[in-house]
Design goal:
The complex is a heterodimer. In chain A, 12% of the residues lie in helices and 27% in strands. Chain A is an alpha+beta fold. Chain A is elongated. Chain B is an alpha+beta fold. Chain B folds into two domains: 291 residues, Alpha-Beta Plaits, CATH 3.30.70; 66 residues, no CATH class. In chain B, strand 1 and strand 2 form a beta hairpin. Chain B starts with a strand and ends in a 23-residue tail after the last strand. Classes of the chains: A alpha+beta, B alpha+beta. Chains A and B meet through helix 5 of A and loops of B.
Chain lengths: 319, 380
């Protein structure tokens, strides 16, 4: 029994250190399986069961400052399926700590991203592309997943017992659902229940005047988007510091926690939605992609991340 | 890394970008001998700019009591500790700045405060440097054995901002017209590299909009030739703002900023050793231990205290100090009118803005109202 256990441990170690390891083929590439019908958005969908995976080794980004001094995600398991319209990727990695808030001053969210060259058959710099070779990025973030699952998170969610007297143009008498409490003339004023304070008013219920006091929202910063419909942001870049959110995107995704693992699906139309912004993928052809994983517990953000060892990885779309 | 000139350190230093001084630089002056920590400036700023959700713990302006008050907690001792003991040699700083000798994974040496560091706006408030043990100690001078003072702080709109250097998105910029440093609210992605890099901890993260924010030096007022909210609301009249000449070969003696910084050298930068060339200038409190003040304001402390003690005789200096808090309009030049014993401020066109008596006139009020017989003086 003991021998078997040691054997399993050795196998696990081998799997985590030898990278990249292709599970059941000798080619180091992500093989996207053709499926009929819609691609699954659910990471636990049975569709994923029969799909071959590629174990991709990850290294800390410290080629450019600010970087991550130490890596914390040694590898990520990648699967992909595609229909004739859409492609889906499933990323699985171990992260002992779930970090799904950006609503606290010193907290950072777990996240994952896939990067593609926009122009066919080019190999841009794997560090955010370059001036001649733009890249497309599909960026999933745990904090946005929480926004989707539980509504836009703000200070009242981060600190449930926090109180603050008032905010400009926000009614002070609000119940937990955000409805105004009307006090009738003949009623004796009673102190507002802590649950019914201005801080509990969801931003979605704010008037335009009140929203004016949320600068990021007022200037439509994508980070302050209160009506997010997808946990995946689609972006373009042509080098460091050029990351730009696409105005309109059909990218979608879903991330779930499972026994210390993040399982994240990212989907995107196969064909480019916008030429010059998106990679145009076709079944039966070879492409490249790069992966990045952020560990919120290690205060990973921006260039402080883990990225696929060697940069670009081959991606083949089966017919 | 580029090499830039930092006149506060009297040497060249490393900075991630080429030096590019603005045409003129907005500067703020604080007479620390006058501050009473009433926090009127704090509230003036807070109600004007940061009253929204997510800005609960954001204080672009704060007043902390020294030596043991901080906001965020222990910000200055933590940065000093990060840098370690660093030497000055006369007016030349021989130590390392936050831009020099940084590790491979950083652009600027700094620390990201813990969220708990923001929970108290001035922990250690009003704790003096030491406990009074001997009766009468507090009135012995000129330096008090037991001391404390109030330190009002806003963003320093540094010539070499740490926040700007650290931002991977280049979402922070310094305006050429007035030297104000701003965070582009539409470009910021909330990485908090600026919060980490700013040694003064004056970049804040808005936890509801999820982007970082900082003092904007009330730029709509500055553009209109007026001073910022924290200056015009100061009831102690401890502050004044003016544009400083950035070309050090063209210093103007009749400009309040140039006069206080470069001519009398009475107003000193806060922690110049950090290397950002901050543009807030402090007149040090004269009763405080000079060793502590030197750590905080650099080697010019002794001269500044000497100048301040001499201000009664130095009429030109007195005139400059008298202008503090006496006008909302930004002055370009100032003068001492010996004939009338008044401080006079002028705008850029040379038009007189304000005239303030250097000696306060005395009125002696009658004891009784002649008509009604009511007391006009305090009769208790």
């Amino acid at each position: 029994m003991k021998k078997i256990f040691v054997g399993i441990a050795a196998l696990c170690l081998a799997a985590s250190f030898a990278s990249p390891v292709f599970a059941d083929d000798d080619k180091i590439e992500i093989r996207s399986k053709a499926v009929t019908g819609a691609v699954p958005l659910d990471p636990n969908s049975p569709v994923w069961k029969d799909v071959k995976y590629l174990m991709v080794g990850m290294v800390p980004q410290n080629l450019v400052a600010p970087g991550a001094a130490e890596g914390s995600v040694p590898n990520v398991k990648v699967k992909s399926v595609h229909s004739d319209k859409e492609i889906a990727y499933l990323l699985e990695w171990y992260d002992a700590t779930e970090n799904d808030t950006e609503t606290m001053m010193d907290k950072f969210s777990d996240a994952a991203a896939l990067m593609f060259p926009v122009k066919q058959k080019t190999e841009p710099s794997f560090m955010m592309g370059d001036a001649d070779n733009p890249v497309q990025i599909l960026y999933w973030k745990a904090a946005w997943q929480k926004d989707i699952d539980k509504g836009y998170q703000d200070v009242r969610d981060a600190y449930p017992n926090y109180n603050y007297d008032s905010y400009p143009f926000v009614d002070t008498m609000i119940d937990a659902k955000g409805n105004k409490i009307v006090v009738k003339d003949n009623e004796i004023y009673k102190p507002v229940d802590p649950q019914d304070r201005a801080i509990n008013t969801p931003i979605g219920k704010y008037s335009d005047a009140a929203k004016g006091y949320l600068p990021g929202l007022a200037v439509k910063n994508p980070r302050s988007k209160i009506d997010r419909t997808t946990p995946v942001e689609e972006l373009n870049a042509v080098g460091f510091g050029t990351l730009t959110t696409q105005a309109d995107s059909k990218a979608n995704g879903k991330g779930v926690r499972s026994f210390g693992y993040w399982k994240v699906v990212i989907t995107h139309p196969l064909k480019a939605e916008y030429t010059g912004q998106d990679a145009d993928l076709t079944a039966g052809d070879h492409f490249i992609t790069a992966i990045a994983i952020w560990d919120g517990a290690k205060k990973n953000r921006a260039g402080r991340k883990n990225f696929s060892n060697g940069g670009w990885i081959s991606l083949y779309l089966e017919k | 890394m580029a090499t830039v000139k930092n006149w506060q350190l009297d040497r060249e230093m490393e900075y991630p970008y080429e030096g590019n001084r603005p045409k003129r630089q907005i500067t703020m002056f604080f007479d620390l001998n006058k501050c009473i920590a009433c926090q009127t400036c704090t509230m003036a700023c807070k109600t004007t700019w940061t009253s929204g959700k997510g800005q609960e713990a954001v204080f672009w302006n704060n007043v902390e009591s020294k030596p043991y008050g901080f906001y965020p907690l222990a910000w200055d001792v933590k940065v000093l500790d990060l840098l370690g003991s660093q030497p000055w040699s006369g007016s030349v700083y021989k130590g390392k700045t936050i831009f020099e000798d940084v590790s491979f994974d950083e652009k600027v040496r700094g620390y990201l405060p813990d969220e708990m560091d923001y929970t108290s706006p001035n922990l250690g408030e009003d704790e003096a440097s030491q406990i009074q043990t001997t009766e009468g100690d507090y009135i012995k001078g000129p330096v008090h054995k037991s001391w404390g003072f109030y330190l009002p702080r806003i963003c320093n709109h540094c010539t070499y901002p740490g926040c700007l250097a650290a931002c991977p998105r280049k979402a922070i910029y310094k305006r050429q017209d007035d030297g104000i440093v701003l965070i582009d609210q539409s470009k910021c992605r909330g990485y908090r590299e600026c919060v980490k890099a700013c040694p003064y901890k004056k970049a804040f993260y808005n936890n509801t909009t999820r982007v970082s924010e900082k003092c904007i030096s009330c730029y709509p007022k500055i553009e209109a030739g007026e001073m910022s909210q924290c200056v015009t609301n100061c009831i102690g009249r401890i502050r004044i703002q003016a544009f400083k000449t950035t070309d050090l070969t063209k210093i103007r003696k009749n400009n309040v900023a140039d006069f206080l910084i470069h001519v009398r050298k009475i107003a000193l930068p806060l922690y110049p050793q950090f290397g950002t060339e901050p543009n807030n200038y402090y007149i040090p409190p004269i009763h405080v231990d000079p060793a502590y003040l030197t750590q905080m304001f650099g080697p010019g402390v002794e001269n500044a205290i000497k100048q301040y003690r001499n201000a009664g005789k130095d009429k030109e200096l007195l005139a400059a100090l008298i202008l503090f808090g006496n006008t909302e309009k930004m002055s370009d030049t100032f003068a001492y009118d010996a004939k009338t014993d008044e401080a006079v401020a002028y705008d850029e066109k040379g038009k007189e803005i304000v005239r303030v008596p250097c000696t306060e006139p005395i009125y002696i009020r009658k004891v009784l109202n002649a008509k009604s017989g009511a007391f006009l003086t305090n009769n208790t």
